[in-house]
Recover the amino acids of this structure.
């Protein structure tokens, strides 16, 4: 039996985002994926939608993942790990004096789709990499599908949603760049936009809601962090696993 309430576990898990994170590896072939030791959260969406920026902001880092004004910046699956691995091995950038801790998740930044200027062959390679990863990665816990607030769902976003539904993968929809359409997240247009997209998502079984965000204004980040933590907590079935995690933090 758990001896602490669900909310307590989620608050505890929120500390994950205040920990040091490091770049682990970049993978361009699905056969080269890192060993499946941690659960993974992946970030997907069209090119330039703001995936890498969003990941940096979630992890409270400025330049962990590379970002750019030019679409096509991320060209591989980039894995980011909590600085201390499950075995307690410390990453080189982290002080040896720190106590080894256990962290349950890794984050995966993905190449974007819909980048028309990339050479066709390169585009096909990225898309098959992303889609193969989504279909086959058993430890994938949840996907954040990023959608530009200004444009809503593109046809490729809808195809990604189809794939996530068919593969029975849970996903959040994260609206990005909200600051480009409103001055405040309380603007009624935000509510209307979310309601409109929710209507389009009505028949989807695996989506877990829509979050409106802006990394420039830091809107909505904590709500997404909390949602991810809720999923991570529920993924750890036994209280023992979580208790040891809690002790170590
Ligand atoms: N105004 C504003 N700009 C943003 C926001 N999020 C990202 N950007 C900008 O959008 C551009 C693209 O961001 P990236 O994070 O590189 O986008 P990406 O989806 O990772 O792009 P690819 O790696 O090419 O697929 C950068 O110039 C960011 O500064 C936001 O919330 N508001
Ligand atoms: Mg990127």
């Amino acid at each position: 039996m758990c001896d602490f309430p669900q909310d307590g576990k989620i608050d505890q898990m929120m500390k994950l985002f205040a920990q040091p994170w490091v770049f682990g590896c970049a993978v361009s072939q699905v056969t080269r994926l890192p060993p499946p030791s941690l659960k993974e959260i992946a970030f997907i969406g069209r090119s330039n939608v703001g995936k890498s920026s969003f990941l940096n902001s979630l992890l409270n880092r400025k330049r962990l993942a590379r970002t750019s004004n030019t679409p096509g910046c991320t060209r591989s699956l980039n894995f980011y790990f909590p600085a201390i691995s499950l075995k307690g091995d410390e990453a080189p950038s982290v002080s040896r004096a720190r106590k080894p801790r256990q962290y349950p998740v890794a984050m995966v930044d993905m190449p974007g789709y819909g980048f028309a200027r990339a050479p066709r062959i390169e585009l096909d390679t990225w898309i098959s990499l992303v889609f193969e990863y989504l279909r086959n990665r058993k430890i994938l816990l949840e996907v954040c599908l990023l959608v530009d607030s200004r444009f809503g769902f593109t046809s490729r976003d809808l195809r990604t949603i189809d794939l996530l539904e068919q593969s029975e993968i849970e996903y959040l929809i994260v609206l990005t760049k909200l600051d480009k359409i409103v001055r405040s997240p309380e603007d009624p247009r935000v509510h209307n936009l979310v309601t409109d997209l929710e209507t389009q998502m009505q028949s989807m079984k695996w989506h877990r809601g829509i979050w409106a965000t802006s990394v420039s204004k830091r809107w909505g980040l904590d709500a997404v962090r909390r949602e991810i933590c809720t999923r991570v907590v529920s993924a750890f079935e036994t209280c023992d696993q979580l208790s040891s995690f809690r002790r170590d933090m």
Q: What stands out?
A: The pocket of magnesium ion (ligand 2) is lined by residues 51-52, 73-74, 109 (CB under 6 Å). Residues 85-101 have pLDDT under 50 and may be disordered.
